[in-house]
Each structure stands twice: as C-alpha cells, then as structure tokens.
Design a protein that fits this description.
Length: 342
C-alpha cells in the first residue's frame, strides 16, 4: 500500500511533487497515523473525501451518528446542479460515497466521542475505545434539527412529534388526519407540501406573517388548497402528554395574545438547525451560535492543521452545493497545509 501511495503521490499530488514530501507521508503511515481524518459524512465530508483521495492523501472518513447527514432526511433535491429531474438526498450522498471510495477514500462507521486538538498528532477517539491519530482533521459534522424547547415536545417525540416528514409522513397514524408543521422557512414549506399527500389538512404555524422561504417554495405552499397557514402564532404546548400521543397543539397569537387549540395527529417541527460542534467546544473558535469560524476566507480554523466545511461552519447558505464547495476547499487547504508542514 505504501508503494502505491508513494507512487501515486509522485505522479498526481501537486503539493507532494512541489515539496517532495512522499517519504514523510510514508513515515506517517508507518507510524499508524492518518494523513487526513474527515469527521462527518454529509455533502461536505464526502466531497472533501473525493478531493483528498484524488490528491492521493488516503483520507479516512468517519461517518458519525447520521451517515449521509441531514440531506438523507429530505426528499427530492431539486437544486443540486447536474440533476435536472432532481435527485433523492439519500441517492446523492450514496453516489458521493461511491465516488470517494473509487479513488481510495476509506469510510468507517463510528461515532466520534472526543477529539484532542492540542496534541500533535491530533487524536480522534471513537465510541468503543479506538483512538485514531491524524496529521490533519477536516471537521464536517453538519447540523441538527432545532427543537422548540417545550417539555411536551420531548415527551411526545416519536409519538406524533417528529422532525422529518420525509421519514415519518407516510406512517398510518398520520393518514387522512389533520397535521401541523411549525416554521416558515424552506424546510417547513417542503415538509408541509410533502404532508399534503398524507394528511387531511396541513396547518403551517409560523411566528410571523410572511414566510422566510424562497419565493418558489412559498408560492407552492400558499397556492396549495390543503395547506392552511396560521400566521403570527407560536406553539406553547403539544397535547396530550397524558394520553401519550399527539392530539393537538395549544397556540398563542404573538400579536393579540389570543390563545387557541388546534386538533391534529402529528406535529412536524422544521424551525432550522443548530451546528453539531459540541465536540470542539473550548478547542476551536466558534461564533455565539456555535458555528466554527474560518480564517481569512479559507477553511482553516483557529488550530493549524484543522479545517472545517459544511453546515457546522455555515450559518448563512446551508445548501448541499455550498457544503460540497466547502468540502472541496477544505481538502485543498488540508493538502496544501500537509505539503508545507508534514
Ligand atoms: P431557516 O431558513 O432558518 O428557517 C427557520 C424557520 O423557523 C424560520 O421561519 C423561523 O422563523 C422559524 N423559527 C426559528 N426558531 C423558531 C422557534 N423557536 N419557534 C418558532 N419558529 C421558529 O431554516 P430551514 O427552513 O431549515 O432552512 C435552512 C436552509 O436550508 C435555508 O438556507 C434554506 O433555503 C435551505 N433549504 C433549502 C431547501 C430547498 O432548496 N429545497 C429545502 C430546505 C432547506 P423566522 O422566519 O421568524 O425567523
């Protein structure tokens, strides 16, 4: 394996050609240290893996708790270039993984329990006790669904409260029943449209009176006769914990203060995301919301040798294509950094 890698480095890796680092990478491998560990298997991590593998950097990608990332929980992705008829989120990441593996990326299923970025080499600890040493790390841990923060929400999760219409919308319990979607962004609109195939009516509860969603999604929602927007309203409680199932929601109008109840069999919460960056708290610089900061328009973080890509660093765009773009940049930055420092 060492020979193959060294050989391909000599022919294909511009950083190695320039700096003649093939012996050093061989040394790293002989010390059981990885060149690049990519944490996360969404569009960002998988694109980083494709680029790092094609640069003969022999990356190891750790999948994490949700292989494929959040995009696997959406239905058809209509805006990823190259798929004029759309592509299922799951199919998109499956193809990305096959592409990365074709060029030699290794994919390991496992959860990262802790990282120590103060050490050289860096240490990545997996659940179960395995520790991986890495010359460089690409953080691509994505983001998770934001919760309303209600006690009843937690108590009724998976008993009618869900964060994924694509995953759960077709369940028998929701068929021909009134359903509630909370949120006003593209995700909420997508969820509401999907649920029109199953529910008798879909109430879209939004805390303002205009949707945040893109106009194409907003138009589809507002023109769908099965979707009833409920403006200026927040959910204050999900009913009914005593019955251990969803029977309705309590609402408050934020403008008038009026309180009301709405019967429904399911509550689909789509109010945005929070970055999955707890592992890196106290180690990497982050903004107030927990997004990892990038330096000087690159994917470099506050620790040299650690790079970041995707929804865990991007609070603004959060698209599959922008995550993939950052994944590409992170692999190029990591390869350059290794060429100069390893
Ligand atoms: P988002 O754009 O941040 O929208 C979150 C929505 O939830 C907002 O309407 C927000 O209200 C509301 N909200 C937030 N916290 C709330 C709370 N505690 N209680 C009640 N409502 C709350 O998130 P997103 O819809 O998940 O979209 C994220 C990104 O992915 C966006 O860039 C979006 O364009 C993209 N996306 C694209 C597609 C697509 O192209 N097919 C599909 C899904 C998502 P306010 O409006 O008042 O802030």
């Amino acid at each position: 394996m060492e020979n193959i890698i060294t050989q391909s480095i000599q022919t294909r890796n511009p950083y190695e050609l320039k700096l003649g680092k093939e012996e050093k990478i061989s040394e790293l491998i002989s010390k059981s240290m990885e060149n690049i560990v990519i944490i996360g298997s969404g569009c960002a991590g998988l694109t980083a893996a494709i680029y790092a593998a094609r640069a003969s950097l022999n990356p190891l990608l750790i999948c994490g708790p949700s292989p494929g990332g959040l995009i696997t929980t959406t239905g058809v992705v209509e805006n990823f270039p190259g798929f004029p008829k759309g592509v299922e989120g799951f199919d998109l990441v499956t193809q990305m993984q096959a592409q990365a593996e074709r060029f030699g990326a290794r994919v390991e299923f496992g959860n990262v329990e802790a990282v120590d970025l103060s050490l050289k080499p860096f240490e990545v600890k997996l659940e179960g006790g395995k520790t991986i040493k890495a010359a460089s790390v690409i953080v691509a841990t994505g983001a998770s669904h934001r919760h309303l923060g209600l006690e009843s929400e937690t108590q009724l999760e998976k008993k009618g409260v869900t964060y994924c219409a694509t995953c759960d919308g077709a369940l028998p319990v929701f068929r021909n029943q009134p359903l509630v979607v909370v949120g006003g962004g593209d995700s909420a609109c997508e969820e509401a449209l999907h649920l029109t195939h199953f529910g008798s009516v879909v109430y879209l509860i939004h805390r303002r009176d205009t949707l945040r969603a893109s106009s194409i999604m907003a138009d589809r929602v507002l023109n769908n006769p099965k979707i009833k927007p409920v403006w200026d309203s927040v959910v204050t409680e999900i009913l009914d914990v005593a019955q251990n199932k969803v029977t309705g929601v309590k609402l408050k109008n934020v403008k008038t203060g009026a309180v009301s109840e709405l019967s429904c069999a399911g509550v689909f919460i789509a109010i945005g995301h929070i970055p999955n960056t707890k592992l890196f708290e106290g180690q990497l610089e982050m903004d107030e919301a927990g997004y990892i900061l990038r330096k000087n328009g690159t994917t470099a973080t506050s620790i040299p040798g650690v790079f970041v890509a995707g929804d865990c660093t991007d609070s603004r765009y959060r698209q599959a294509i922008t995550a993939a773009g950052l994944g590409c940049q992170a692999a190029l930055d990591a390869g350059r950094w290794m060429g100069e420092n390893c």
